[in-house]
Fold each of these.
Amino acid sequence: MKMFIGASIIVSVFLMIYVFLQYTVINQDNVYHDDEQKGLNKQIVINFSHVVAENTPKGLAAQKFAEIVNQKSDGKVKIEVYSNGVLYSDDEELAALRRNDVQMIAPSISKLTDLSPTWQLFDLPFIFDDYSEAKQVFTGKIGQDLFSTLQEKNIKGLALWSNGFKQMTSNTKPLLHPADFQGQTFRIMPSEVIKKQFELLGAKPQAVSFNKVYQSLERQEFDGQENTISNIYSKRLYELQKYMTISNHGYLGYAVLMDQKYWDSLPEDVKQLLSDAMVETTNWIWTQSKMMNDEQLQQIKNKSGMRVYYLNDTQKAEWKKQFNSLYQSFEANATKQTLDIIQQIKNIESKK
């Protein structure tokens, strides 16, 4: 009897040990899967919000940037792109960035003038002669100096992207001489320099967010507007305007921004990854934007009833003369830093 009891105890002990080992193995498996899930939770997701269509220079650049980062990070970093203002309008996105509701935006340069008046110089008409000149300024020392003006606002500037030169459109008459603007209402981006530009032409400017331009023109709230070919094409503004003047009077660029605190919170390897991907994307978009504007101008000519005119040298001189007081006023009130930048741009022009 004692031997039976002893054997039973030994068997019971072995059974307990076996159950314990099985439980431990199962738990170890669970721990492994939990760690795997924990690793997924460490993925960095950066929400990138912008207000233009996906098939525009900025829209394509945002997608390309996301593809480069998503691929090279092996899933560690994911860029989620939200286009067409689905999250925030161009009037709202900077505040959203500060709240960390989004982590990356790319507003037009005109939107930065409230943060630093120095950026106003890029709204001056005919500040650039061609794409190569704009690229030298945006991707060189001048661009870096301009981003330094945003640091005190806790904004991190990553890159300046190109869209292209702006053109004039109207539903009333061709815009070839300053007198042609007299009395017409124009949608503009919020900028005191742009507003003054249209006032000097005798027009009535009114600032409206980009995602409302089509509806405003459809309701005939404005006679005309200024924009790049790619924006006129992607938003189908050519359907609502009869005349377009290839004036190349202004340049539309975008500043890719992040909140400085958010940027500082990122690991160093992630910062390097984002910086490298941004350089690659920026080089790509400078070529792509010019090609898109050229191709889409031809498509507008082929598929719409819009009449396209080209500003000749004599007419361009008339426009510049009309803006003389704007140039003089701007330089008279500019900071030394702004004047230095203007001089650097003039130096680039003189070397041609």
Note: The longest strand covers residues 243-259.
Amino acid sequence: MSSVYLSLVNNLEELKLFQFKEHLDSYIDLINSGKKSVVEALKELTEYEIKFKEARAMNACVKVANFPFLKTIKDFDFSFQPGINKGKILDLLTLRFLERQENVLFLGNSGVGKTHLSVAIGIAAAQKRISTYFINCHELLQNLKKAHLENRLETRLKHYAKYKLLIIDEIGYLPINREEGNIFFQLINKRYEKGSTIITTNEEFSKWHEIFGDVTIANAILDRLLHHSVVEKIVGRSYRTKDILRENNAKIS
């Protein structure tokens, strides 16, 4: 091997152009055989590198987003939940709602696919390198309460308010006291018309005063969440019973 070639390989390693280095030999052969010009080869080699870096950046965004699992819309069985407006979900996946700073609220019983849909939309956003974060409502409130006790609530509120898309899962599964409700309102108010929030809940909005233990706080939260929003109510069976039902049907047949 020539010293020039070895120097080139070393330079590519130093610059961390690993995809360029990986495909270098095959493109040298293509140039020597006249199948590619030098300019064409350089263009395609740099495209390999760009695609690799973009994929790595997307994966990093997905990892940082704190999703409980990685499931896209391709993994969602719309045939099991025919009541869902598929067109509306596919429109949400275009992420147009983020540009309009709209919120998305998924309402339905446990297991009907609310979290899966919110994660699928979140992954679509993270893959576009849009700042996204997923958190369970109870965990969020515990974090904010801890920050309040440590006199750093404002800093923590700013942390959660900075995301272009914040997904808050499972509102209504555990009771929320007045102090927690007040803190939650502060977060929603901070995000109001500045970012989009996806909410999943098992409770009708008319019962949110029972969740938060205060009519005024519940109404103030809903007022900001629903002002610019897309609401999808899911009425159907739990996906967790899906396999059991199939097994039973198989036994009967």
Note: Strands lie at 103-108, 132-136, 165-171, 196-201, 229-234.
Amino acid sequence: MKFNFKTSYIVIAVVVLIVLLLFSGRMFLIIEAGERGVVFRPYTTGLDKEHVYGEGFHIIAPWNDMYIYNVREQQREETMDVLDKNGLSINTDITVRFNPIYDKIGYLHEQFGVNYINVLVVPEVRSAVRQVAGRYTAEEIYSTKRAEVEQTIKDETRKVLEENHINMRALLIRSINLPEQIKGAIESKLKQEQEALAYEFRLQREESEAERRRIEAEGIANYNRIINASLTDKILQQRGIEATIQLSESPNSKVVVIGSGEDGLPLILGNN
């Protein structure tokens, strides 16, 4: 009996060892840094959306499946043709940076699966770019409202991705390419508009300067009228006497003849 028990233990141990060897790859898992995992239990509760496995070593039943997601920031670059408001084709280069929302991996897996980038992210980015571009003309997209177009694309893309458990870090429009003929026409129009604005500015500046000179001239004329109205004969005589006194006190030699000038004003003679 002892021998039979020992044999049974050996057989059980061998079976367990074989099972471990066969299923160790499914039972023992290591989730690397920057990754998260969700478990699917096909024979019991199905997909466990609420419990997200973090980095480190994990053991699961061999009949269950662990789906591991990269949650680091990722980047996709897309080149696409879109139509503007008037149906003109515009070629654009787009870069989008994103990552799955860590604690929503289960919901992301349930709706889109591990291929979510091609199923969700890329189509939504393309859709947002097309929809927004269709609201503007080529000129607005290329120059006059480019910042507004970019911001609208970012806002609409971020909203739809967040609703589907993706955090959009950034969306960049690297380039907007128009047919050369259209591009040249737009640039020519913009140049003419800038020249017209510069000419208008010069006119306004010259008008302002002319207005300043007119006001200055009116001020001088008003000043002269006031002075002329206040200069009576007696005031002029008084000013002449004061000027004569100041000159007579200077060190230069001179001859002062009192009452010899017009209206009896003094004359200064012999200045050296």
Note: Helices lie at 2-27, 105-111, 116-133, 138-144, 146-162, 180-230, 233-248.
Amino acid sequence: MPEGQRADARRNYARILTVAEREVAVHGAGASLEQIARTAGVGSATVRRHFPTRRALLEAVSRERVEALRVRAEELTGQGDSRTALLEWLDGVLSYSVAARGLAAALAYDGVPADPVHENSCSATMEEAGGPLLRRAVRDGAVAADVTVGDLITLIVGIVLATEHHPDPAARADRLLRMAVAGLSPPA
């Protein structure tokens, strides 16, 4: 939120964001923008002025969680076994994404070509955060050289979206990530 905005605009932004966090927690990425506007006591045009796209709203709602994941990646960089460090970070990304409905959608590739005005800041932050962990794991031979952080985030997003309606989404998502990491067949 730009500092140069009027006090009422800053209050509206904060109120919309607080309501959006609650609505996204309950309804996920499909939370109604109109319901958010009504509950926040503003018009839908005010919501759209602050958040011109659903992705912009989801990114704002997810900003603190994404920052925590960035910090965790920093903490893990250079610690212990490179494979273990990378997998611990991916476990954190998965756990946050399962618990924070809407984060997976904020990280998902939406098919829109890169546009600096509408850049996916959540994905950019995650790519930057996971880069050192992945490069170290690749250098140590723990991960294939052609794997990218984008690939890993896409895998997490796919798992989270595929399991969000499962009776125990966290357990199911964890199982699927373990299977993906181990491969479909156990070592001989």
Note: The longest helix spans residues 54-76.
